[in-house]
């Protein structure tokens, strides 16, 4: 069976062959526990240390600032809950378009006496900096604003948010999972106290991510145990995945500039074709990730279009993969002021390093045929 063309790289990416090659020895012969004192353990510890340096270099920090965890969800929960445990309850501020692994733990803090404030976004999906100023006029302990939205690809001015938050002595975090590997991400330039990145969004393995911390920050760990990761994340290190993460970071840095321009050219071609067919592009006037296009044909349900395009040979998404078990309307689009019926029509295309311009052309032809057929069926049903 021929698999469809993959246009869903914001949900996950295929494992780069060079990453797999680097991982294989740690799945076969170098299988030691990195905490063991014998040679097997020493080999594993050296591999983890190298990967820590590779990840650190990719975002401009020192290796000691990297805490390896299992995924972006764990990293975000570790920061929010770990920070809250160190601070007196006050206000936690997040944007209205955060991923559920930020939005839900932030909401949970309200049971412990915290007040939750959600920052508004404009019609293009950009955080309203005036709303940031207003929100932070109140005593605030924690601020978390994502660097790039996983659905729209819209990039936020995190540095400006952080500047305001730091004046109020708040701890600032950014979920950079979607941005990392697609645009330059520099921890110092963003002026945050903490940042999350993940391996499987950059052609690395699932099961490895990093919480990057300001060296002066002290969080309460989520997990108690053997004190791994300098006490921040107890549990035997997933050495093969961590090794893969490190190599994936190096590869991402080496290809980013050329890949960005290639992706942007493909996305521009895609969106011109979408507009010619009458699509509405979400966040189209904002600065976005070069690989992401989120659009709707208001008369066609998003789930229906995803299924029909899959049959036609193209794998796309109707929103965040982490929310795919639910048919709820996208909170991101609702926060942008999109009508619920239009939001339910949303479809996301997210391109990757192996996609080609001819695949965009083929997609547009297939989409045109699918739309015509669905419209004919709709007319017959009426």
| SSE sequence, one letter per element | EHHEHEHEHEHEHEEHEEHEHHEH
| Poorly predicted runs | none
**What's the average pLDDT?**
95
- Spatial order of strands in the largest sheet: 2-8-7-6-5-3-4
**Largest β sheet strand count, sense and barrel closure:** 7 strands, mixed
Query: Roughly how much helix do the residues carry, as a percent range?
Result: 40-55%
**For the CA atoms, what is the radius of gyration?**
21 Å
Terminus-to-terminus distance: 36 Å
Which fold name fills CATH's third level, the topology of the largest domain?
A: Aspartate Aminotransferase, domain 2
CATH class of the largest domain: Alpha Beta
Number of DSSP-assigned strands: 12
SSE map:
Layout (H helix, E strand, L loop, with lengths): L4 E2 L10 H12 L10 H21 L6 E4 L2 H13 L6 E5 L4 H9 L6 E5 L9 H7 L6 E3 L13 H10 L3 E5 L11 H4 L3 E5 L10 E5 L25 H38 L3 E2 L10 E5 L5 H10 L2 E2 L15 H5 L4 H4 L2 E5 L6 H25 L1
Parallel strand pairs: 1-11, 3-4, 3-5, 5-6, 6-7
Antiparallel strand pairs: 2-8, 7-8, 9-10, 10-12
Helix pairs in contact: 1-8, 2-8, 3-4, 8-12
Keywords:
single chain; 382 residues; Aspartate Aminotransferase, domain 1; Aspartate Aminotransferase, domain 2; 2 domains; 12 helices
């Amino acid at each position: 069976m021929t698999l469809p063309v993959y246009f869903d790289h914001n949900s996950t990416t295929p494992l780069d062959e060079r990453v797999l090659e680097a991982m294989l020895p740690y799945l076969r012969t170098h299988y030691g526990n990195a905490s063991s004192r014998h040679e097997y353990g020493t080999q594993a510890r050296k591999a983890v240390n190298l990967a820590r340096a590779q990840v650190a270099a990719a975002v401009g920090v020192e290796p000691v600032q990297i805490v390896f965890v299992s995924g972006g969800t764990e990293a975000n929960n570790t920061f929010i809950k770990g920070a809250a445990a160190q601070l007196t309850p006050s206000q936690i501020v997040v944007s209205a378009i955060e991923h559920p692994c930020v939005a839900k733990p932030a909401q949970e803090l309200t049971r412990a006496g915290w007040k939750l404030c959600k920052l508004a976004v404009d019609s293009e999906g950009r955080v309203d900096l005036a709303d940031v100023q207003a929100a932070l006029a109140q005593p605030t302990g924690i601020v978390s604003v994502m660097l790039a939205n996983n659905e729209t690809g819209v990039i936020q001015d995190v540095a400006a948010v952080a500047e305001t938050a730091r004046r109020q002595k708040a701890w600032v975090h950014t979920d950079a999972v979607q941005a990392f590997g697609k645009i330059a991400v520099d921890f110092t330039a963003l002026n945050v106290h903490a940042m999350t990145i993940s391996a499987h969004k950059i052609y690395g393995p699932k099961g490895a991510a990093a919480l990057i911390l300001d060296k002066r920050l002290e969080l309460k760990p989520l997990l108690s145990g053997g004190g791994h990761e300098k006490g921040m994340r107890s549990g035997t290190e997933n050495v093969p995945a961590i090794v893969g993460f490190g190599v994936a970071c190096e590869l991402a840095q080496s290809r980013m500039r050329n890949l960005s321009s290639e992706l942007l050219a493909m996305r521009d071609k895609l969106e011109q074709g979408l507009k010619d067919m009458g699509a509405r592009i979400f966040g189209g006037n904002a600065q976005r990730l070069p690989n992401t296009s989120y659009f709707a044909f208001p008369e066609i349900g998003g789930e229906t279009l995803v299924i029909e395009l899959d049959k036609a040979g193209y794998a796309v998404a109707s929103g965040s993969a982490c929310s795919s078990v639910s048919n709820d309307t996208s909170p991101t689009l609702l926060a942008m002021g999109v009508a619920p019926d239009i939001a339910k029509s949303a479809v996301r295309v997210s391109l990757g390093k192996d996609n080609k311009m001819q695949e965009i052309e083929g997609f547009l032809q297939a989409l045109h045929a699918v739309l015509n057929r669905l419209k004919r069926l709709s007319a017959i049903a009426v």
